[in-house]
Amino acid sequence: METPFPPFEPNGPDDSARGPRLREIPLRLVFPNLITILAICAGLTGIRLAFENRYELAVAMVLLAAFLDGIDGRVARLMKATSKFGAQMDSLADIVNFGVAPALVVYVFALDQARSLGWIAALIYAIAAGLRLARFNVMAERENKASWQSEYFVGVPAPAGAMLVLLPVYLGFLGLATDRTFAYLSSIYTVVIAFLLISRLPVWSGKSEGNRLRRDLVLPMMLGVVLYVALLMSYTWEVMVFTVAAYLISLPFGARKWRRKYGTLTIEEPGIGDDDIGRHI
Fold this sequence. Notes:
Layout: H1 27-51, H2 55-78, H3 84-109, H4 116-140, E1 152-154, H5 158-165, H6 167-173, H7 180-198, E2 202-204, H8 218-234, H9 236-262, H10 274-280
Antiparallel strand pairs: 1-2
Helix pairs in contact: 1-2, 1-3, 2-3, 3-4, 3-5, 4-7, 5-7, 6-9, 8-9
Domain CDP-alcohol phosphatidyltransferase C-terminal: 217-252
Keywords: Lipid biosynthesis, Lipid metabolism, Membrane, Phospholipid biosynthesis, Phospholipid metabolism, Transferase, Transmembrane, Transmembrane helix
Family: Belongs to the CDP-alcohol phosphatidyltransferase class-I family.
């Protein structure tokens, strides 16, 4: 069958009917989004491994997802590849990697023995992580930011929450019996971490530009980091339990520092108000 001749166009071909022409995108704009996608894949793979009773790999994948999710924004800023699309991708990845994945892993490992109470605890944590991320996004969109936002978080940040909520799993790896009593205690602990996420507790972030390290402490700090990584590789779950304990112990000290500087125990400035809620629903 012969191909019909194209219609005659006296003024040349009409390209407007083809829609807007797709322009080429620099590869550096795509690379941070690939890191975000890999983080989502790691988080979802961690969930699958947990249901297959391969718990150590599941926890490793969740922690890897948290690591990748934590560096994608920094990589985008270093490569000058930030975009609104990337910001939306990152927000969706945060909910999966810091909320859903840790909640399901800890539920399958320990909370399921508490039956409905364990599932309720996992739900509370996942929802709290979503609320925490929504509050963070709303505060980040404000044009006029408070000076303390570069030094403190409002409540425990979601990446730290994912690390904290997995404590029952770390303890199980160290040989602690994961019976029904352990499941009930883990459920209570999970709810406590959920409330720390959505609390107004001032948590020191360490991101303030005014924080500087004395020259004589640089080499000892670098040696300490090397020692920590070496211990983490050799005694992974012991070091993770120590890290969780150290982080929880540090929270009152951050709140104490805030009180000395601002005179309150919690951050009183509203994170989200009625206008913010109405505008973002």
